[in-house]
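re the bet — no i am not wrong, look at it urself. input seq straight from the record:
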Amino acid sequence: MVCSRYAFVLAMCAGIVVIACKKKEESAATTTVATSTVSTATVQSTSAAPPPATTSSAAAAPAATAGSIASTEGETPGLRVDITELKRTSGGTVNLKFVLVNGTDKAFGIANHYLGDSHVSSDSYRGVSGVHLIDPVNKKKYFVVADTEKNCLCSKDVQDMAAGGKVNLWAKFPAPPPEVQKLTIEIPHFAPIDDVQIQ
């Protein structure tokens, strides 16, 4: 009788151990499946996410002008001037040629940026008579040459530029003395360009 009770208790203990082991295995399997599901879901979510949107208020900056000898940025981001010539010419003058580059995403109106100077020229509205040169040696400012009727010898009637556009401009100035080899170019609403070599 005692032996049969011990056998029964041992059988019960063995059964409990087997059941406990099975529950532990099932629990481990469930955890593994859950982890695997979470991991898979994360990977799918990451790969399905769209790339972040990018916005820009300026167009891609146009390339530098071929043959430019100096450059400066405007007060308006995206506007640039490339200097292509600063050269002594016959008649005691200096010829300045430059390219106005519109790297913004909007049209650019030269008349709205006051590149003209009504004190220098009577036809300044869409012109570049406001540009001037500075002689750092003699501390002298040179204004655009004008004729007897106060019309500038410079680009006039410049039309609005489309976004990403370029326009070639020019102006003629009195020449500094021969010993002056470099000048500063000042264009309204653009950073001054120092030490530009006269060609």
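see?? Residues 1-49 form one domain. told u. also Residues 35 and 178 are 84 Å apart (CA to CA). so pay up
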